[in-house]
Design brief:
CATH topology: Growth Hormone, Chain: A
Distance between the termini: 30 Å
Number of domains: 1
Structural class: mainly alpha
CATH architecture: Up-down Bundle
Length: about 375
Amino acid sequence: MMGVELRIMAQSWLILEIGASQIWVGAATGLRVIPAIILGLFAGVMVDRLGGRSVLIAERLILLFLAILTAAVVVTEVVNLWQIVVLSIVSSAVLAMGMPATQTLVVDYVSKESLQAGNSLNMAVSSLARALGPLSGGFLIAGFGLGSPFVALIGLYVLSLFFSVRLPKSHPKERSGTSAIREIGDGLKYIRSNPVLFRVMLIAFSVILSAAMVPIIPVYARDRFDVGEMGFGIMLTSWAAGQGFSALWIAVKKPWERKSSPILISTVMFVVGDITFALSTNFPLTLISLAMIGASIPIWASSTITLLQTQSDPRMIGRVMSVFSLSLQSMMFGWFLGAWIGTIIGNAQMIIIGSLLYLVVNFGLILTSRDLRRL
């Protein structure tokens, strides 16, 4: 995760530095969702067939190769815009393999009673990485130039591969002689036929709306506050710090009896923080709003993930979590939409409209389902 966040921070700043607009910042991240959809669905089948550990190792090997390739074109100064966008799209497609694998491994390694704490601890570690990634990216760019974060990325993926290989072996959930395409179809039908799973999955995809503000962060850092790459890194770190503290708090507290209530609470937190971020012209207040946005995410995500894990047939869990992973990938499409719509109607207006729609979707899906409200 530190590598993912380091790459996003560095490539966003690189795109702006070579003279491209905020639309390309959004495109480099948002368009990655297209190939990720295809590979992510197949990844769910592979997790059910082979086990999460095997899929995770394959993902890390390919990411390492892509990191080496990216560093080569940036350090040798032959990089151009299309290379950044293409490499970003390919790397995101590969990351779609690892997401369902990681989430199913939590189920393998953690008891059912401790799933929410396990998911939250997983997020806490990711939040720490999200804080260190952008912050280290700011230091590296300021001290050693735009190529240095991409060189550091290689080392991070070497470590990631080493520890992935050392994970305990995981066992396949289902062995089937049917085609992968048919198994994908079976997984989608299973989700659609389960009213609770289907609504929770729609809630997961609402991140398209909430993610619209992400490509505006570097724009505000450069144009509204003039704080440079270090200030941009601090803004992302503030977000990650709020997320990390929230995730640790969830991990040590008693699990919520109902998972739907914290989803609603976190939605309100996010909307308040998002609108404050959109309108703020004070840098410290902006950092507070980003921390609040970050704090809302583990509450929302740990509850959503735990609902999906506990309400799924174990034989289908890889495919269910692969569809959930696609919702996280679709967040990147929200980045592209945010960057594009922001240039048309204004960034602040776009953020406010997106956050209010996010509020309506989450509250509507939960409050109109008695079964979901009880969970």
